[in-house]
Amino acid sequence: GVPSCFLGIRAVGQKNVFTLAQQFHLAGGNAYTRLMAKSAHLHPDKLLLYEKLVSTNAGTELKGATVPYTSMNGNMSSYMSKEGKLALRLPREEMEAFLEKYKARLCQAYGIVQKEYVEVPDELLAKTSELKKHFDVSVEYVSSLKAKPTKRKAK
Fold first, then answer.
1. 3-state secondary structure of 20
2. Predicted confidence (pLDDT) at residue 31 exceeds the cutoff of 90
3. CB count, 10 Å around CB of 106?
4. What is the pTM of this model?
5. Which helix (H) or strand (E) holds 21?
6. Residue 63 DSSP code
7. Average pLDDT over every residue of 61-69
8. How far is the CA of 119 from the CAs of 40, 45, 114, 136, in angstroms?
9. pLDDT digits over 71-91, tens only?
10. For residue 38, how many other CB atoms are within 10 A of its CB?
């Protein structure tokens, strides 16, 4: 449970309607750093929906502070942009079906079209159970890719 002192407190300076208690409860991991990262994100409501989606797949973990993402073997499977858009990496067949079904489009970052990533419409982001199917396909697809070495900063 969440301590009662957190109930009803609003995040200072944020437009969101989530209380600190809700953020604390959903944060997981190091609660303080997750809270701070969430408060700093421009779209905390969408970030909470993304966290909820990630929690439906036991093999995934949300990483990244400014640009939250999921990855397997060094390959990204999804991320949430600073603009609050969720990107999913899908295999070609799934991607084409997704684009058509949801009238979606490919992701763009810094003016470059990301050919393997679809932009999840906001309406679908709010439907966790429906989006979960596509998220699981993304995780399975990325897990099948050749592992990339992770980059570590030299000490």
1. helix
2. no
3. 14
4. 0.71
5. helix 20-27
6. B
7. 90
8. 22, 17, 10, 16
9. 999 999 999 998 999 999 999
10. 23
